[in-house]
Every structure is written in structure tokens, then in C-alpha cells.
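Q: Convert this sequence to C-alpha cells.
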Amino acid sequence: MNKCFNWPIGICSWSLHNDFAKINTVMKTYDFQHIHLDLTPACLDESSDYLQTVRQQNWSISSAMIGFAQEDYSTLETIRQTGGIVPDENWPQNYQLFTKAVEAAQKLNAPYLSTHIGFIDHANTADYQKLLDRVKAFADYAQNNQIILLMETGQESAENLAQFLQDLNHPAVQINFDPANMILYGKGDPCLSLEKLAPWVKHVHIKDALPASTPGQWGTEVPWTRGQVGGHNFLRKLKEINYNGALAVECEMAGPGHDVKAAFDNLIAFEG
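A:
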């Protein structure tokens, strides 16, 4: 099976629109079985055969993932307002969705469940504490089902996210590190951020990006090694911090197909 250095290589299922046939074709081409699995289809429609079909695949689930229906990624401002579990009006249904995802992840023997919790308001004490309480509620439920919650990077600087995790101080909350998100959201250098967040990093996305030309706007996702993540320098930094988890290729804004191929080809070529 292909590995990059000593890391298992996988793919995010949503990069290929959760199309199981396409996922299996890419897995066969590059000789891997790991997947970061989107559980949203199963949790939104419990009558679907999504989980049953997943069980029929020869996949090793490095992590599961859940998103929230109200999230609007049109602009940085819309996702700031609608992202994660910040909106009060969506909290009850989002908590229920998360519990369903935890239970599904547990049934599939997935070790982790990742999500964006939303922008953290460090300046508002009440809102900050409310988000701490909500993430703790998620983490408690996950822990009771032998699942670790992974907060995904990007919407906070490494310093602010580290402070949040220290304040939370929960053993069932760790990090899914997405280096491109640090650039897309304008939240700092990926390699320096990785150093600061190293104690919590348990899962990593392989994705690249260029910064926005205008502050306050989205950056641009580009194929792996074509942006400012640093490609092989980022992988060397993973070695330096003794990271031993999976690498999951993610292609979102740039679109699937060519970008997936470029990412796998470059990962396989990495020799340290």
C-alpha cells in the first residue's frame, strides 16, 4: 500500500462528491484504502443505505466528518455569521445532528469525527464561554461513544485556537490540521501554525491555496504544491513534530479530478 514517508494516504470522500465508484477507482489507481468520510448524507436521511454501502467497501476510515445545514460559504462574512455551532437558532438541531454523526462514526469504528465549530469571538466573554460550553457538550457525547472530536483549522489563528483548546482542556478534543485553510481564511503561515498546534494535531488534510489579493475576501484553492502551503516543506515539518497520523487529500474549490491526481503524485514522490 502506498504511503508518504510513514503516513497512511487517503482521500476526503466529498472531494469526489461521495461517489463511491469514483473513490474506489482512485484508491485502486494509487493503492490505498484510507478515507476521511463525510457522514452528512447518512445523518440527514436516516432511511438511506449510505452507511450500509460504506460497510461494503474495503475502506479504512481515518476520520469521519459532519457539516451543518445552515452554513453559507459564499463569502468570509457569511460563513462568519453562519458557520459551525455559533448561530443560536441552529444549536438544537446541530447538536442532534452531531449526536447522530457520533453514533454513526462509532458504528463504523472511526476513531475521529471532524467539523468546523465556527468563528470564535475572543473579544466577547459571554459568547466565548457559550462556544466553550457547546464544544464541551459535543466532546462529552463523543467521549462517551469512544470518539475523538477534531476541530478543523482555518477560522482562527494558531495562537487563538491553542488558547481555546487550553481553556477547554478536554481530552476528547484534538485537531484536524488543514494547511490551506490557514491561507484561505488569512489566519497565518501553515508551517508556523503547525508548530504551535502540534500537541493537538491528529489528522491532516493535503490541500493548497493562494492568499486573497484583497483583505477580507477568500483566498484561492490550487493544486497541491502550486500554492503557499509549502508542499514538501510542510511534509518535512510534519516529520519534525513527529506526526504519525493519516494524510487525507482534499479538493474543494479547485474541483476534483486533475487536482486529486496532482496531490497523490506529489505525495508519493516525497522522500523526505
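The chain has eleven helices and eleven strands.
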